[in-house]
Amino acid sequence: LRLLRAVRFAARFNYEIEERTWKSIKLNASGISKISKERVRDELTKILLNENRVLGFDLLVDSGLMEHIIPEILQLKGCEQPPQFHPEGDVFVHTRLMLSLLNDNPSIELVLSVLLHDIGKPATYSFDEAADRIRFNGHDKLGAEMSNQILRDLKFSNSIIEDLSKTYNLNYEGLFMDVDGNFPNHPADPSDENNLSDLKAKVLSKNLDFGVAFDGDADRSVFIDDKGNLISGSLMTCLISDWLLEKQSDIKVVHNVNVQPSIVDYLKNKGVQTIRYKVGHSYICLLYTSPSPRD
User: Fold this and answer.
1) d(CA 134, CA 94)
2) What one-character DSSP code corresponds to residue 218?
3) Is 162 helix (H, G, I), strand (E, B) or coil?
4) Which of 129, 146, 156, 234 could disulfide-link 151, Cβ–Cβ 3.0 to 4.6 Å?
5) Residue 211 pairs with which residues in a beta bridge?
6) In 3-state terms, what secondary structure has residue 204?
7) Please, are residues 189 and 196 in contact by the beta-carbon 8 Å criterion?
């Protein structure tokens, strides 16, 4: 157990492990398998919850301890991803990057979900010759099964395992679902934050991950996070574009002059062709249905 504690203290206090000690840790790393899973789990949890978790992660991998705790993590190395969507590198590099982006006080459920969110990719790797791109069909479902087994092996509680399983299955709570053109609850304008008070209360009372509000004809939406704070429309657009690009890479995006330049730059960096056009939904629809030199 002291092998893990050496890693934990080095990460917590940000110091370099003495050379002979480090060699000894690497030499005896396989011995961690003899320690009870509960004690290993507790040390791993402390490492992952520390704000210097990326250093702890690196030390676990480099020492050989990770091979005997969650060996599936090592399989992420060299598992390439579509460069147009993941210019940062393979699945291992991506996972490490995601860990580095967590805030200073995340829940263990959130850290574990980030650590294991792509664990099913190596087993589902394929190359689509027709589309000339890498795919991971079904990695989310397989990843959920693998994550559950990993966490059970490490003796994590059923409540934590159940919480993580929710990240693979989207559940929602409805609010004002009965159609009424008189809009008796509040004006149908989600861009006015005063109209989001009921949604914020719902998200906070039900401990939901996020909330979405639509306008009267549902062609505009506003997102709030789990704390009831507004999420930037530009950020949501970029996140949704990533999801769409995972499904189809050879797309064109039409936008008007009001769109944030950062969104256009983000799409161009992804290799997407962007087309600026007149303001108005009708004009954009006309562009889709009429012959154009840009189609």
Assistant:
1) 15
2) S
3) helix
4) 156
5) 224
6) helix
7) no
Query: What global pTM score does this model have?
Result: 0.58
- Can you give the pLDDT at residue 295? 47
The CB density around residue 149, as the number of other CB atoms within 10 Å, is 12
Q: Per-residue pLDDT tens for 281-292?
A: 777 777 766 655
Contact 256, 282 (CB under 8 A): no
Given a contact cutoff of 8 angstroms between Cβ atoms, the answer to whether 224 and 211 are in contact is yes
Single out the residue of 3, 21, 14 nearest to residue 54, CA to CA. Answer: 14
Say whether 135 sits in a helix, a strand or coil. strand
Tell whether the torsion through CA atoms of 138, 140, 143 and 145 is positive or negative. negative
Q: In degrees, to the nearest 5, what angle opens at C-alpha 68 toward C-alphas 66 and 72?
A: 65
Q: Alpha carbon of 4 to those of 1, 40, 42: distances in Å?
A: 5, 8, 10
pLDDT digits (tens, 9 = 90+) for 172-201: 577 886 767 788 888 888 889 999 999 999
The C-alpha R_g of the chain, in whole angstroms, comes to: 23
Pairing mode of beta strands 273-276, 252-255 = parallel
Q: How far is CA 104 from CA 19, 53, 95, 111, in A?
A: 29, 10, 17, 11
Q: What is the pLDDT of residues 80-139, one digit of tens each?
A: 998 877 888 899 999 999 999 887 788 898 899 999 989 999 999 999 888 888 888 888
Could you give phi then psi for residue 84, rounded to 5 degrees? -70, -20
